[in-house]
Amino acid sequence: MCLIAVRWQPDGPEPLLLLGNRDEFYDRPAAPLAWWEDHPLLAGRDLRASGTWLGVTRQGRCAALTNLRQPAASRPDAPSRGALPVRALVSSDPASAVLEALRPEAARHNPFNLLLYDGRELLGYQSRDDRILRLAPGLHLLSNGDFNAPWPKAEALRAALAHAPEDDAALLKLLEDDRRFEDARLPHTGVPLPWERALSPIFIRTPTYGTRASTLVRIGRAEVRVVEQGFGPEGPLARTEIAFPLRDPR
Fold it and tell me: Is the pTM of this model over 0.90?
């Protein structure tokens, strides 16, 4: 994914709310949100490398990945980062143990951020500086930089969430904001300025690359609900809505 907002309220009726946009080249094939046959998880699927960008399990485990935009550090022969959320989801270990086990091999991959909720804790991992972050209750935003870095799109979504209604449609609508930001506010990530401009909105539209899916995840006390709205170069595609009872992790 390329933009994630996650609200963690461990003592509330809905411990985790996640909103996110997945941005990708339109010619990279992907399957929409569905239960996988080969792993016990609900996720979209990258059909080129078989991984995912966001997924949940029947036990309420949730993992999401963003690429760190650092072109100088990217290698074309690196293994797919999409395998990392799958590995985090199929494990029954605590989030801290999963991320600690990942650290020795993280450098094999191109730079990434991994968000992992195990039903008890919400943790993040930044491969750029090999850091595990124990995220406090509250709202956290993540794009293609460090956790909670004040990128314009992230701060715009943070501000919008402060006044948004709580219904699914209204929250997903926030992810369709395609306003670009002024040059002075853009991050400097190593891509040419025209690309920084094109990648600056919450919702990205270019002829070859753009927002492919907007996803909402609600993990409550008794139920998990996931809504995914697909997009193609011509506009909206199918919407998938799946709800299921939360299963005891034991």
Answer: yes
